[in-house]
Amino acid sequence: MTPFIGYFMLGSAFLIIVSMAMMLTRLIGGPTLYDRLLAVNSFGTKTVLFLCVFCFIIGRPDGVDIAMLYALMNFIATIAVLKFFNYRALNVTLMVNDESER
Amino acid sequence: MMSAFILFGAVAADTAAVTHSIDWVGLLRNVGTIISMVTGLFFVMAGTIGVLRLPDFFTRLHAAGMTDTLGAELILIALIFQSDSLQMVLKLLLVAFFLLITSPTATHAIAHAAYKAGVKPVLGKYSLPDVEEDGT
C-alpha cells in the first residue's frame, strides 16, 4: 500500500466517523421508536465499514473477522428489538390453528 | 511527473539507469480503489444527510436503506482492490455478501413493523389509497 493510499484511507475513515456522529443525532433526537431503530441499524453498518477500513490502515487484517461478526450481530439485534416491541415479549407462544390440521 | 510520483507511487525508478518502468497493475488497483471509495463515501454521506433532513419516517427509511447497501458494497470493493492475499479477498467478499443479504431485510422489517404500528407518513395535499387489510 503506497503512502498516498494510506492517507486516502485515513480520510475515508474520518468521513465514515463523521457520518456515524451525524447518525447519532438522529438516534438521540428521533421522534419515534422506529427512527431510533433505523439509526441504530445504519450506525452498525457504518461501524462494519469503519472496522474494515481501519484494519487496512493499521496493517493488521484480523479485524475483518470482527467486522463480519458485527454485521451478523447487528441484523440479529435489529430483528430481536423489532420482535420485542411488536409482541412485548421475546418468547411468543404460538397459537394452534385448528382449521389447518389435516 | 512529480504529481504522478505522489499520487500513485507505483513508478519504480532505477537509480543506476535512467529508464523508468511503470507498474501498471498497481496503478490500476489504486485507480479502482480511489474511484470505488469516493463513490461509496458519496452514497454513505448522502444517506446520512437524508436521514437527518427528510421530514418523514418513511422517507428517512428510504434514504438510509437504499444508500447504505450500495455505499457499503462500493467501499468493500475498494478494499478488495487493495488486499494482497486470497484469504483477505474471501473474507471481504463474505462481509459484502452478509451486508447484501441482511441490510435490505432489516430495512423491510423496520418498514413493516412501523406500518403495523401505525406510523403515518406526511402526505401534504395527497391522501392514502385504500389498501386491503390482508394485503400488507
Provide a descriptive summary of the structure in words.
The complex is a heterodimer of chains A (102) and B (136). With 102 residues, chain A is mainly alpha-helical. Chain A has one domain. Chain A contains three helices and no strands. In chain A, helix 1 (3-29) packs antiparallel against helix 2 (33-58) and helix 2 (33-58) packs antiparallel against helix 3. The N and C termini of chain A lie far apart (65 Å). With 136 residues, chain B is mainly alpha-helical. Chain B has a domain at 23-116. Chain B is 69% helix and 4% strand. Chain B has helices spanning 2-8, 24-53, 57-82, 86-116, and strands at 11-13, 20-22. In chain B, helix 2 (24-53) runs antiparallel to helix 3 and helix 3 packs antiparallel against helix 4. Classes of the chains: A mainly alpha (102), B mainly alpha (136). Chains A and B meet through helix 1, helix 2 and helix 3 of A and helix 1, helix 2, helix 3 and helix 4 of B.
The main sheet of chain B comes to: 2 strands, antiparallel
Q: What is the global morphology of chain A?
A: elongated
- Percent helix among the residues of chain A? over 70%
Q: What's the tally of helices of chain A? A: 3
Helical content band of chain B:
55-70%
Radius of gyration computed on alpha carbons of chain A: 20 Å
What characteristic shape of chain B results from the CA principal axes? elongated
The tally of beta strands of chain A, per DSSP, is 0
Which chain pair shows the most residues in contact? A-B, 45 and 50 residues
SSE string of chain B, helix = H, strand = E? Answer: HEEHHH
Provide the low-confidence segments of chain B as ranges. Answer: none
Percentage beta strand of chain B: under 5%
Span between N and C termini of chain B? Answer: 61 Å
* Total number of helices of chain B: 4
